Amino acid sequence: MTNLSNIPLYFPDNQSLMGIYSANFSQVEQLIQWEIYIKFRLFSSLISLAIIFIGLVGNLVSFLILTSPKMRISTNVFLSSLCVSGFIALFGLLINSVLYELIAMYQEKFPELFTLLCRLYPYIYPIITTFQMASILLTVCVSVNQFLYIYFSKLRSQSKNSTKQECQRALKIVVLMFLISIIYCIPYWLKFTYSDETGLQETEIARTNLFQKIVHFYMYLPIAYIIPFSILIFTNAYLIATIAMKNKRQERLGIKEKKLKENEEEIEDICSSPIKHQSTNSLMTVTLKNPLKSNGANLYKLSVSLNKPKHSSIKIKKPKKELTLNKSVTVMLIAVVFLFFICQFPALILHIVQSMVCSSDTDRCNSSYLLNYCYVISKMLLIINLSFNFVCYCLFSPKFRLVLRESLPKLILCCSENNLY
């Protein structure tokens, strides 16, 4: 969750902004650096605009697919809620970040639109922060849910809870996460203000050292980063280790597959061998050992009735099928969390720098081109994180792709009918 407060909000005058850097550079160097920075800012805004549109469509389609009857499991309840929070956060970033910066560069041509965006900024900013926080909490929830699903798989197989009950429980957790996000982001409603005299600026409360320490350090770092990152590292390490163990087990099964085939051939030979007719009822039992288990557990047990050779009955008793790990779902969730780490980690580093360095020397941070470039890149990574979960679903979930292929013609037909009317 990138803190946008240190990013320059608008570009009122090139000379006044370049005056910050006059102590370190000559006038020519100032002009060159400023021109490069403005071009980079404009380029990043246009790229972010394209990514946001892709993310809005992707989150909408993902929500429709994940809430379809064929996809109703507890994991998809968290993922569909993640789509909702990502969609709202992206829509807010479209107004408060991308459009705001583009209009700010040309505010002389669009003064009324720029004034409207400045008036909306203090209200949209906390909404963005709330749903960014909800996205973080929901990412943790979906990872923990899959961890518990695998770790307590035996208990779950004996449980009488239906899929509907699990989805209802997941929905209650989702509502709780949204409530926690709303409560957590209450101080952000006090951060910015706008007036016709002073324009858009931070409030007096937000400028105090106490507010910055409590909100940006003691609250933000533990709740938004340290605790979620720790939980995600633990749960995903377990999931990766589980998948690695399953892959090794499948390799061992492939090596010993021939022995299973030999046992099946032996069963067929026994069943097809001629049996003499006996007047009295008799029963022949054949037990075969499981070559995959060193303890010699029974794999097949055959009971052949010999009373009538032509109607001999064969009953094959197989061991109970254990609850297996859904590998595709687990790999998809690992990909979602991996994307989360890549996109959120730079924001964590920048926030630590802001909390420790910029709080005591604001002018130094504002005059640092390196930090300003890093802020722009971290904001773009945040937008990518909110937009590209759809790509992870398509790449790593065969069931999602299948339902998408089945539903896509219906969605296109529905949109075309709406356009006609």
Secondary structure: number of strands = 5
What gross morphology would you assign? Answer: globular
SS strand fraction: 5-15%
Q: Report the mean per-residue pLDDT as an integer.
A: 77
Can you walk me through this structure?
This protein has helices at 14-18, 27-66, 74-105, 111-151, 153-158, 163-184, 204-207, 209-255, 257-272, 327-358, 362-366, 369-387, 389-396, 398-420; strands at 192-195, 199-202, 283-289, 298-305, 314-316. It is built from 14 helices and five strands. Helices cover 71% and strands 6% of the residues. The longest helix has 47 residues, at 209-255. The protein is mainly alpha-helical.
Topology:
Layout lengths: L13 H5 L8 H40 L7 H32 L5 H41 L1 H6 L4 H22 L7 E4 L3 E4 L1 H4 L1 H47 L1 H16 L10 E7 L8 E8 L8 E3 L10 H32 L3 H5 L2 H19 L1 H8 L1 H23 L1
Antiparallel strand pairs: 1-2, 3-4, 4-5
Helix pairs in contact: 2-3, 2-12, 2-13, 3-4, 3-6, 4-6, 4-8, 4-10, 8-10, 10-12, 10-13
